[in-house]
Every structure is written in structure tokens, then in C-alpha cells.
Design goal:
Elements: E1 2-6, E2 12-17, E3 28-35, E4 46-52, E5 66-68, E6 73-78, E7 84-93, E8 99-108, H1 112-133
The structure holds copper (II) ion (CU).
Length: 134
């Protein structure tokens, strides 16, 4: 899957998830290509990545992102911990000190089989929590 977003400063972010769906609870290798407004690769950036859900507060999920060589291509591994809409927030800090952020929405997909087991786990957690509060 491939997503594209351009920052206010005109920097283009291409997010490539190297699988057919953004499956939940599976490591998702990703690549990020960053291009300057003139089309040249944005090399040497430090990328902060944060995975959040617009619908609810989630535990901190900040996969490390590293540059591959000096080509403006970066990589990391995402882990979506539940199904639904996620925001991939990417903040780049360039060598010049310039910073910019884009937000790329992606849908976390739960397979039927996993949905059952996640529901069961959540239910068990809920019951445990109730038990400990007594
Ligand atoms: Cu959530």
C-alpha cells in the first residue's frame, strides 16, 4: 500500500507499507520516501514517528525510523495494536534545523480470526480489572 502527503512547506512524503493490508498485531515493514519541493531527495533528516488513533487515547507507539543510505529513503516497522483508523504522524528535522510534520491516515485491519481472539483477550482483561478492584 502506498500513501502520499505533502507538508505545508511543500515537502513530499511517500509512505509504503510492504503488505496488502495494514494488519493488526503484525509487524509491518514500512518505507518512507521524502522529497524536497524541487524533487530532490531529502537526506539526513531525523524522523520522529508517532502512531495514534483519532478516536481514542492509545499507549505511546513510536517506531524508530532510520535512513537507508543517503537517498532520502527511510525505513521502520509499525505495529498497530487494534483495528480502526490510525494517524501516522511524521515529523522531520532536517540538517538545516527546519522541521515539518505530516499526518497520514491509515486503516488497521483485523482479520475475523484475530478479532475473536482480541475480543476474548480484552474481555479477560476487563474481568481481571474488575476482580482486582473488589
Ligand atoms: Cu484504539
Amino acid at each position: 500500500m502506498r500513501y502520499q502527503e505533502t507538508s505545508e512547506a511543500g515537502i513530499s512524503y511517500e509512505l509504503i507499507i510492504e503488505s496488502e493490508t495494514a494488519a493488526v498485531m503484525k509487524p509491518l515493514p514500512v518505507k518512507i520516501n521524502i522529497l524536497r519541493p524541487d524533487g530532490t531527495p531529502a537526506t539526513g533528516a531525523k524522523i520522529d514517528c508517532s502512531l495514534t488513533m483519532p478516536a481514542m487515547a492509545m499507549p505511546t507507539n513510536k517506531p524508530p525510523i532510520k535512513e537507508i543510505g543517503k537517498t532520502g529513503q527511510y525505513k521502520g516497522i509499525f505495529l498497530l495494536t487494534m483495528g480502526g483508523l490510525w494517524n501516522v504522524e511524521l515529523t522531520s528535522t532536517f540538517l538545516s534545523g527546519e522541521q515539518n510534520t505530516v499526518v497520514i491516515p491509515i486503516a488497521g485491519v483485523v482479520s475475523d480470526e484475530e478479532e475473536d481472539s482480541v475480543d476474548t483477550k480484552l474481555e479477560n482483561l476487563f474481568h481481571e480489572e474488575k476482580d482486582t478492584k473488589k
